[in-house]
């Protein structure tokens, strides 16, 4: 077991089986976010913050498109049940203490997005000798970089004054989401011989 | 790897050296991690100290609260760690952000400390420090941990240290980049949004205090350390020659020697703070010398101090 992907192929590329499983997980998570942002996006904006929903939707879609094209896919029969458990995990989870349904939905989505963008660092899996010309390597670096930018919307919203009265409930729900996403991500990595550093 | 509990969070720490020996507890700066004190551990254990280091909440292998980190939590964690050390003498040192946490600990738990060493430290946010801090936070947000490191390295380390590493800076940055997450660093930086100056409380610090300031530190310049010297009763300010903000990384042998000598002097009853201004030697083991009489230690050119 190593903290990084590999052993690398002779040309410095990440083994296709590892590429497939890592990309499948990321596709599932970012695909779920893209779907949920699409559902949350109104046909016509009446508030400035809704422009951020639009940006999030298209950046999540970009990540999905990038992974589909940059990954060297191989058949992996274990993916079926794994993907089913991932998809179940992305479903909205109720938050105690927020009675307003619309607000609760927005908080749920922001919490899931925070957990995915903050908690998953795919570029940190790359060994130093990974081939910089491998599109999969570039894709992982780009996803981690974009995630830290996307995350800022979730941080602003979840730390913002509107949610101050719900701070404890939001923090508890966020910690639970982080733990759940981390568990699924770590299980996925362990299934391909990777033990994350933390 | 041992962990302490703080509420539902786990704090990774390391404790080495002979049980029952006087202890040094060292507190990390913002983007650091416990292993960076390795040279201090070795040097201080060789001088018969016990050494405790840890990753702050939100850092390294400690848990990282997702949304908020309160500076009170760091003080509580430090108190918990010092509680593990028994009743013997405890000396507390911290660099930069860690120095601030050490100051707060010394204010809240003054009776527990035998000595305090704030390094590259501050008790209040000057306009320059506030604006630099805001800019660093923006850099982190826009460019990630790697960009923050790119900004900090040339600000905080000398040309002599950087020059031989110029073609391998990625490897210098890598461990810090791996163990520190953007959101967690951002939470640590945003713990300053409601920061209240500690200056009015510094006079309550009773522990002997050696304040260390790099000669060329422009992130936390001399004036910020001067506040500590003036306000902390049993203090002395020691200027580290040719050093920048991160002198604990660059001049580990010298700094570890100064830490050990300070604690030995305190325990032997030789320490006299007297709010002196001293100049450290350039090498470990050399003599400290007083700042030239009559000259202003807040200036970068030799200017006579105004008569008061």
Automatic annotation (TrEMBL), chain A:
Domain of life, per lineage: Bacteria
Protein name: Uncharacterized protein
Species annotation: Bradyrhizobium huanghuaihaiense
TrEMBL record, chain B:
Entry superkingdom: Bacteria
Pfam families (alphabetical): Hydrolase_4 (PF12146)
Entry-linked InterPro entries: AB_hydrolase_1, AB_hydrolase_fold, AB_hydrolase_sf, Hydrolase_4
Domain Serine aminopeptidase S33: residue ranges: 25-251
Gene3D superfamilies (UniProt xref): alpha/beta hydrolase (3.40.50.1820)
PANTHER family xrefs: MONOACYLGLYCEROL LIPASE
Name recorded for this polypeptide: Pimeloyl-ACP methyl ester carboxylesterase
């Amino acid at each position: 077991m190593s903290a990084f992907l590999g052993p690398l192929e002779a040309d410095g590329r990440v083994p296709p089986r590892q590429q497939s499983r890592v990309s499948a997980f990321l596709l599932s998570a970012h695909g779920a976010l893209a779907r949920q942002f699409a559902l949350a996006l109104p046909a016509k904006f009446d508030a400035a913050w809704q422009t951020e929903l639009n940006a999030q939707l298209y950046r999540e879609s970009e990540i999905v498109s990038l992974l589909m094209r940059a990954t060297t896919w191989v058949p992996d029969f274990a993916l079926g049940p794994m993907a089913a458990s991932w998809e179940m995990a992305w479903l909205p989870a109720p938050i105690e203490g927020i009675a307003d349904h619309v607000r609760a939905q927005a908080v749920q989505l922001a919490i899931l997005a925070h957990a995915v963008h903050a908690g998953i660092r795919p570029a940190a899996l790359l060994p130093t000798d990974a081939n910089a010309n491998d599109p999969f390597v570039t894709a992982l670096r780009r996803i981690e970089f974009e995630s830290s930018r996307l995350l800022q919307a979730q941080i602003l919203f979840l730390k913002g004054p509107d949610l101050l009265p719900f701070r404890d409930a939001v923090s508890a729900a966020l910690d639970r989401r982080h733990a759940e996403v981390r568990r699924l991500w770590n299980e996925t990595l362990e299934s391909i011989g990777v033990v994350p550093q933390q | 790897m041992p962990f302490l509990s703080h509420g539902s969070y786990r704090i990774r720490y390391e404790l080495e050296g002979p049980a029952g020996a006087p202890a040094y507890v060292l507190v990390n700066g913002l983007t650091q991690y416990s292993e960076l004190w390795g040279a201090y551990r070795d040097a201080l254990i060789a001088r018969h100290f016990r050494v405790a280091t840890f990753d702050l909440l939100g850092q390294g292998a400690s848990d990282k609260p997702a949304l908020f980190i309160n500076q009170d939590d760091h003080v509580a964690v430090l108190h918990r760690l010092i509680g593990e050390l028994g009743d013997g003498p405890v000396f507390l040192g911290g660099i930069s952000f860690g120095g601030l946490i050490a100051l707060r600990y010394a204010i809240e738990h003054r009776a527990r400390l035998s000595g305090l060493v704030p390094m590259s430290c501050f008790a209040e946010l000057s306009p320059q420090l506030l604006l630099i801090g805001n800019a660093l936070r923006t850099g982190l947000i826009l460019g990630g941990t790697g960009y923050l490191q790119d900004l900090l390295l040339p600000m905080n380390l000398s040309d002599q240290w950087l020059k031989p590493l110029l073609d391998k800076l990625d490897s210098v940055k890598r461990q810090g980049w791996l163990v520190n997450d953007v959101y967690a660093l951002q939470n640590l930086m945003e713990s300053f949004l409601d920061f209240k100056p500690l200056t009015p409380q510094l006079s309550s610090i009773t522990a002997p205090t050696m304040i260390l300031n790099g000669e060329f530190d422009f992130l936390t310049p001399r004036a910020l350390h001067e506040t500590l010297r003036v306000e902390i009763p049993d203090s002395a300010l020691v200027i580290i020659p040719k050093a920048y903000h991160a002198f604990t990384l660059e001049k580990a042998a010298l700094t570890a020697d100064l830490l050990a000598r300070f604690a030995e002097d305190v325990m032997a009853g030789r320490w006299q703070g007297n709010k002196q201004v001293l100049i450290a030697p350039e090498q470990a083991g050399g003599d400290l010398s007083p700042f030239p009489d009559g000259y202003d230690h807040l200036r970068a050119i030799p200017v006579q101090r105004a008569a008061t």
